[in-house]
Amino acid sequence: MKVPFLDLKAQYQRIKPEIDQAITEVVSEQYFILGPKVEALEQAIATYSQVRHAIGVASGSDALTLALLAIGVGPGDEVITTPFTFFATAGSISQTGASPVFVDIDPQTYNLDPAKIEAHITAKTKAIIPVHLFGQCADMGPINTIAHRHNLKIIEDAAQAIGADYIKDSLPAARAGSIGDMGCFSFYPSKNLGAFGDGGMVTTDDDELAHRLRLLRVHGAAAKYQYQLIGVNSRLDALQAAVLLVKLRYLEEWTEKRRENAAHYDKLFEEINAQSLGIETPHVQYNNRHIYNQYVIRVPQRDMLKEFLAKEGIVTDIYYPYPLHLQECYKGLGYAPGDLIHSERAAQEALALPIYPEFAREHQNYVVSRIAEFFRTVIA
Ligand SMILES: Cc1ncc(COP(=O)(O)O)c(C=O)c1O
Question: How far apart are CA 299 and CA 297, in angstroms?
Answer without folding.
Answer: 7
